[in-house]
Amino acid sequence: MRLKHLDFLRGIAVLLVLFRHYALSIVLFNIGWIGVDLFFVLSGFLVSGLLFKEYIKYGNIKPILFLIRRGLKIYPLFYFALILSLISISVFNYFKWDQNNIFRGGVIAEFLFLQNYFGHIWDHTWSLAVEEHFYFTLILLIFILTKTKTLQNKKLFITLCIAVSLGCLLLRFHNYTTNIFSTYTHVFATHLRIDSLMFGVLLSYFYHFHREKFVIFFTKYRVSLLVLSGIILIIPFIFLIDSFFMNTTGLTLLYTAFGIILSVMVVSENTIQILNKILGQKIVNLISKIGFYSYSIYLWHIIVLYIITIIIKNTVKPEIPIYIVFTIYFLSSIFIAIGASKLIEQRALKYRDKKYPSRSKNVM
How far apart are CA 166 and CA 173, in angstroms? Predict the structure, then answer.
């Protein structure tokens, strides 16, 4: 069962990304990249939660089933978008093939989810590669912990999470001090970014195995914690992603803030009612609906922007005002993504649920 307040967070995340990739507002452009970090924390929390629920119900997990189910969630729409985007590249001839890694590994890297290391076609798919690398590693880790009957060893699990967090932070420090900044080398790499996913996993671990204490803590201190998160979220407005602080410690603080917000929303029974009072029910419903299709929107928005930009550049004179172009890009990204989701993603999920039913369904 999908939770509306989590779809709301997904909606916020993908809206930030949409603003990041079209500079309608310099402020939103500068902070839009944090939407991916919110996605990471959410993903770590929710996906690991499926494994924890399965273990709670059966005392074991089935890694192959998990990977098949995740593959049917991610791959059909991704490869559909990738193939169509390659056709678009050929038809519009927008890219110089020899200058954009298309034949120098980009296609192969994209198909193998190695685009954050070995060349890419679209910049934004790097985050999907990070998640794929992380979940293959996570399923192996949790499988080992279940087999050795140490999954519920709280100290061990916390130690592993801290090790990942400190490891990524130290690697970011080393990377920033030894290499000239570029998004490809300082933002995209899996070994520099998986700590945000792992933090989501840690929160999910406490939520599923120590729920009473989890609920009490985030209920009792929710006001103080939300104030702290709000203060942390000021940081991206001050420091850009290419700054030393933001690219190192700032990323750690950022996923901490998102994790707190996520946890408070999860334990609060009236989250949606509060959001409705603050933003209005129609806006909350709209953002939640966008969040429902967030994966498809994330996949398609850059492809849509590319096509729109080329069409406008080659056919429309004089130039269209920037806010009109943004509106076309924004609405087209959402509507095309919804159509693609219904055509590909949702059909794949129906097939998945029929042929490979979840073992974690209906587990609290």
Answer: 10
- Cα 127 from Cα 22, distance rounded (Å): 18
Residue with tokens 């005002």: 321
Supply the pLDDT for residue 308. 83
Q: What is the pTM of this model?
A: 0.93
Q: What is the C-alpha to C-alpha distance for residues 360 and 364, in angstroms, rounded to an integer?
A: 9
* Pairwise CA distance, residues 63 & 148, whole Å: 15
Return the pLDDT at 254.
97
Helices marked H in the chain — which ranges?
A: 4-20, 26-31, 34-58, 63-92, 107-111, 126-147, 154-178, 183-186, 190-209, 211-220, 222-232, 235-238, 244-245, 251-267, 271-279, 281-292, 294-315, 322-340, 346-355
The segments of the chain whose pLDDT lies below 50 read 95-103, 363-364
CA dist 203 and 201 (Å) reads 5
Sorted by where each begins, the domain ranges of the chain are 4-355
> Contact 31/236 with Cβ under 8 angstroms?
yes
pLDDT in tens, 143-173: 999 999 999 999 999 999 999 999 999 999 9
Give the pLDDT of residue 364: 40
Whole-number Å distance between alpha carbons of 362 and 364:
6
